[in-house]
Design brief:
The protein is of the alpha/beta class and about 300 residues long. It has a single domain, classed as Rossmann fold, CATH 3.40.50. It has helices at about 1-15, 25-40, 50-60, 80-95, 125-140, 175-200, 225-235, 240-250, 280-290, and strands spanning about 20, 40-45, 70-75, 100-105, 150-155, 205-210, 260-265, 265-270. Strands 3-2-1-4-5-6-7-8 form an eight-stranded mixed sheet, sandwiched between helices.
Length: about 300
C-alpha cells in the first residue's frame, strides 16, 4: 500500500510539467519523448525532417498522447535558424500559457570529412556545441527557474579521450571524425560545469548514456565509418533504457543539489579531469560567447 501511494505521489508531482527535447524524431530523443509522455509530462519536440516528424506524431497519436505533444521544426546548424526555433517556441508557450521545466539537448551530429556551417564554423562543433549554448541562451527566459527544473545535455564517454586546444577549438587542422566528435562532447561537459558555476538556481547535468543502439553514426558518415558504427552499436543498450535514466535525473529529488554533475547510466561519476580546471571552463565559456556574440548569458531577454 505504501509503495503504491509513493508511486502515485510521484506521478502527481510531475503532472503539469513541460519538457523540451531536441533530436525528438529518432534515437534517444524519440525514446525520451515517448518515455516522458508515458510519465504524464507534456513535450515540445524539435525536429527538422518532415517525414520523421509525421512518423513521430502518428506513433504518439496511436498511444493516445496526441494532445500532449507539440512540434517545433528547425535546424540547429546555424544561428539564424536557432533564433527562428526560439521564436516558434515562444509563440507556442505564450499561446498555451506554458513555461519549460526540462530542457533536454539530445540532438547531435557525427560527420565524415570537414564541413563548414552557414555561420562558417566546423559543422560538428556548430551542432554539438554552439547550438547547445545558443539554444539554452534563447530558451532560458522561458523556463521555470526552480531546483525542480532541469537542463540535460547529452555528452558521451568519448569525451574522456578528448583534449582541448584553444588554438584549434574547431579541429580545423588535423580533422578526423572521432577527434571532432569527442572534442564536441568534451565541450558539452565544460559548458555544463560553467553554467552550474554561474547559475545555482537552474540545475544542469551532462548525460552519458553509454553505447546506445542508434543510427547517429550512419547519417553523415562514410561507408566505412557507417559500417563500423553499425557493428559497434549492436553491443549497445536500447534507447529506451537511456531515456529512462534521463527521466530519473529529471524527476528524482536526489539530483536536486547535484548541478554540474556528469551522470553515466543514471549514476553520478567523475568526468574527464580537464573538466574540473577552472581556467579551462572559464576560457571556453568566454570564447564560445564571443563566437555567438552573447554579452550577458543570464540577462533576461523576454
Amino acid at each position: 500500500m505504501y509503495n503504491k501511494r509513493k508511486q502515485l505521489l510521484k506521478v502527481v508531482n510531475i503532472l503539469n510539467k513541460l519538457a523540451y527535447v531536441t533530436g525528438a524524431t529518432s534515437g534517444i530523443g524519440k525514446s525520451l519523448v515517448l518515455t516522458l509522455l508515458k510519465a504524464n509530462i507534456d513535450v515540445i519536440g524539435l525536429g527538422r525532417n518532415d517525414d520523421k516528424i509525421k512518423a513521430l506524431e502518428s506513433e504518439v497519436e496511436a498511444l493516445g498522447f496526441k494532445d500532449n505533444l507539440m512540434i517545433v521544426k528547425g535546424d540547429l546548424s546555424y544561428h539564424e535558424a536557432i533564433v527562428d526555433i526560439a521564436k516558434q517556441t515562444k509563440e507556442l508557450l505564450e499561446k498555451n500559457n506554458l513555461r519549460i521545466d526540462f530542457l533536454c539537448h539530445v540532438a547531435g551530429r557525427v560527420t565524415s570529412g570537414y564541413h563548414i556551417s552557414k555561420d562558417h564554423h566546423e559543422l560538428t562543433f556548430q551542432v554539438n556545441h554552439l547550438a547547445v549554448v545558443d539554444l539554452t541562451y534563447q530558451l532560458l527566459p522561458y523556463m521555470n527557474e526552480s531546483m525542480k527544473s532541469r537542463i540535460l545535455v547529452v555528452s558521451s564517454q568519448s569525451h574522456y579521450r578528448a583534449n582541448i586546444n584553444f588554438n584549434n577549438l574547431e579541429t580545423k587542422t588535423f580533422y578526423t571524425i572521432l577527434r571532432s566528435y569527442k572534442r564536441s562532447k568534451l565541450y558539452n561537459v565544460l559548458f555544463v560545469k560553467g553554467f552550474s558555476k554561474m547559475n545555482q538556481q537552474m540545475p544542469i547535468y551532462a548525460i552519458d548514456p553509454g553505447l546506445v543502439r542508434t543510427n547517429i553514426g550512419e547519417k553523415n558518415t562514410s561507408k566505412l565509418a557507417s559500417f563500423i558504427w553499425r557493428w559497434r552499436s549492436k553491443k549497445g543498450i536500447h534507447p529506451e533504457v537511456a531515456a529512462r535514466h534521463m527521466l530519473n535525473v529529471m524527476t528524482s529529488s536526489e539530483f536536486d543539489h547535484q548541478s554540474g554533475s556528469y551522470v553515466r547510466h543514471g549514476i553520478i561519476v567523475s568526468s574527464n579531469p580537464v573538466t574540473y580546471k577552472e581556467q579551462v571552463i572559464d576560457r571556453l565559456w568566454h570564447e564560445t560567447l564571443n563566437m555567438l556574440d552573447i554579452k550577458d548569458f543570464f540577462a533576461k531577454k523576454n
